[in-house]
Amino acid sequence: MFGILRTLWLTFLHMGHRRVTVGYPEHKPPLPPRYRGRIILSRDPDGMERCVACNLCAVACPVDCISLQKAEQDGRWYPDYFRINFSRCIFCGMCEEACPTYAIQLIPDFEMSEYLRPNLVYEKEDLLISGTGKYPDYSFFRVAGVKIPGKDKGEAEREAPPVDIHTLLP
Amino acid sequence: MATILIDGRACPARTDENLLQACLEAGADLPYFCWHPDLGSVGACRQCAIKQFSGPDDKTGRIVMACMTQVTDGAILSIDEPQAREFRAGVVEWLMTNHPHDCPVCPEGGECHLQDMTVMTGHDSRRYRFTKRTHRNQDLGPFINHEMNRCIGCYRCVRFYRDYAGGEDLAAFAAHNDLYFGRHEDGALESAFSGNLVEVCPTGVFTDKPFSAVYSRKWDMRGAPSVCAHCAVGCNTIVNARQGTVRRVINRYHEAVNRYFLCDRGRYGHGFTSAPTRLRAPILRQDGIPVPISMATALERFAAMAKDGPIVGIGSTRASLESNFALRCLTGPDRFSTGLTQLEHDLTMQVPALLRATPARNPSLHDMESADAVLVLGEDVCVTAPRLSLALRQTLRRAAFPAADAAKVPHWMDAAVRMLGADAPSPLMVLTPAATDLDPIAATIHRAAPDNLARLGFAIAHRVDNSAPDAPDLSETEIQLADALATALRTAHRPLIVAGLQYANAALIHAAANIATALHATGADAALSLVVPDCNSMGMALTGGIPLDAVRAMARAGHIGTLVVVENDLTRRLDAATLDELLAAVPHLVVIDHIATRLAERADLLLPAASFAESGGTLVNTEGRAQRFLPALTPTMPIQESWRWTQQLTQAATHADAPEWTNLDQIVATIAQEIPALSRIIDAAPDAEYRLDGRRIRSEPARISGRTAVRADISVHDRPLPQSPDTPLSPSMEGAYSPDMPGALMPFYHAPGWNSVQSLNRFQQEIGGPMRGGDAGTRLLDDGIPPETPEWHHDIPTPFTTAPDDLLLLPEPRLFGTEELSALSPPIAARVTPATLRLSTLPAGLQDGGMVSLTLAGEHLTLPVRHDPALPPGIALCPPHLAARAFTTPVRVQLHGDDTP
After folding, report:
1. What's noted on cofactor binding (chain A) (predicted)?
2. Interface pTM (ipTM) of the complex?
3. B618 in any annotated domain
């Protein structure tokens, strides 16, 4: 008897509490920028693809839902295809952590429901956005010591000009 | 055996090795860069520093370089001692100061020795804040990518390329911090072993260019043990595949055969597996129009063909034992051809008998390296068996080892031993018609026609043992040379004679056998190695069959209803007129092959076979070692193994006794039962029932990625992995993997903390020794019982005579381009140079580079001429197949003078 009354009382008390539930989809909750939702591929400040097809996201993925193939043009690596099977993705963010170029990012968007599982397979065209995402300034190829069009050897950050190997001077 | 204490743990060690080897053999993680098991120690990188204590009371100890310090019994060492750790951390930090920030875009990433060693040393954050030294890269040709910024200056590349492989166009340039390893200018690396730089380089300076175009990380690729199919040496390889295509071929260590190195033809020759000329469906030719048909229709058509008369089969020296044997079952032994013309057939058939009957040893490649005098008689091994020539190069160092022992210098002390041996290398004697790549290091070079070389060989044998027949009518210089060579060979303890079938000259191999027999009779530990042309020539010799000429005779007599040709492009064996005559006399031609050869274009029924990467099988190498290759990929129907096609043809032709093999092991067992010479091929590798700790060995690394996405564009549903009944390897990353795996089943090399190929150390019983799980393959020719008294060959040819306008044209095989399958691989094709005719004396009015026309193997050719004064008179050289397709054996030709200026 006491238990029933206590339960009624506690339920009654909740009437005065602030509501936590949001009336989605009419009301959309504010999500922090670090919320782990849909995965995108970003571009560097110069507008080039950030992904260098290093495969680290794929190997970090605990459910093995990322697959890609490296291609190369003028020293720049890029993915020939980049596929995420979102019907398997658990949004753990390990791919983002593994990415050495800030290319793969999880964004605060989770509205991806589909009736058919094949529609949850995202290709590079579906993943690649036109902006830099969360990291506006970083460009891997400005730091890396590989030669790409517009950046010769020795022109990356903290690099000396190429040495003349024919000299013996110190 | 000595015992050393490593961090308080007593470990067995050998006194002829250094502390680094001892530590690695004891399973300790000790970082190193410049030491390599086959290149020895130079102490260049200072990474393998450890503490050595002079006794139990010594608490201070001293830092020594493990790779430069010999094992002594009772040595007390510490790898974990703080000062040694700090020293190593400091060294790796220095090495990394100029390393570029590019691991994500480096093809070495994930299998990089530098990554492993950096992690092992604990260097995880960069303190160096100044600018990095940079270098410009070079274009090193179609095989190798160059990225000098990644270099850590360990000198391994030049030590392998120059000291070990004898290359001259890679060197160290500049000085101090600016050290540069490259060529004097851009250009393809000339050495036949340049591809090994990829594995020798501990970081990503030299990377595999064709692999980079279809790149995949090491952890993403399935591996399967395979055997190289591009020459008769039978180097062990690992085929890496992903998403249904072969990505690359890397070395698989075999203690007695290829050890740590492959030649470029083997490493880059796999491109034919995904060539546009691959056959993917059965094709029926109706009124000259090729029509793709189903498997069932193909078999029905064959059944109809089989009613039109007897079936004759032509096998191939590039097909596996199983494919040839299945064909032999279809046709019967009397109607199974080796696919060789009479001359090649006779020679190939007598090689195993010759090796068995000769009392001298039939050496493995590693065995050859310890020869202290080598005679190469009429075979350019640098192109016919490249890896064998690399073994012969190592024999020159043989003389240095006694000198090193006398000077108390251990053999692994590479620079010192090379210095000691530089003055008096072991003699290498090269007797060939044309210059070879071994010439610069040979003590004696002699150029003569094959017949004259054979005569010289007989003369040498006579001078070693008087009872051997002598060659009559030798010239004064030949007598002197024979005396000198016989003396050099007689003084050796382990002389080695190498000959082969390149010039299709029986007298040459008989002379070689005579020399080896004579040397053996003197009490020396003599060895005889005979090089056969193709990857399974020896297997074919042991299987037996009739020559192509007999098939032609049967066709002429109308005794062939259907001709079944398995993996043999007869246009490379028979000239056009002969082939036309043969095919005209045959009502039906069935061709089973994996590439669209010129013969396949003429087949009435063409069946798509699996390549070496998609099938299992057995090849017998030139020393008679049967070795198994296993499928790295599952062939997509209707592609299937040649032996499965042939078996189905047998069933379709309603043979009462059609074999019913369901897997590779069953056909291997049948071969072993039916052909006594091949009875031991069962032991070449464990069968498909092999289990390690109750599980199959996994063919994929544990961390293979993208399994649920890689096929998601086709279907999101999981499908069961295709299981092959032919392989003991599991198709996925589930399964056993341990250092005790048999060498014949090694899918990839990986050990905790060791992601690069250097992890191989963990799989060997001792460094440079056999695999812990046993070496691959089984030798078949060791059962010969040589006669009590030496039996001499007496077929001494008459001296070679020249006529003014009559030349003996010899085949001049090339490293790249004359071998059928590798020539279809794009990187190899990029290195093929056009055919030329090499002449010792130019006809009057003809300049070097001028054009000359001749009729060769039924073709009228116009070829550029190259003047080669070193050639003996009356001899001309032309690459086989490149100019005239069917040119393989020496032939007399007449030049028609120059057509164009």
Report:
1. Binds 2 [4Fe-4S] clusters per subunit.
2. 0.91
3. yes
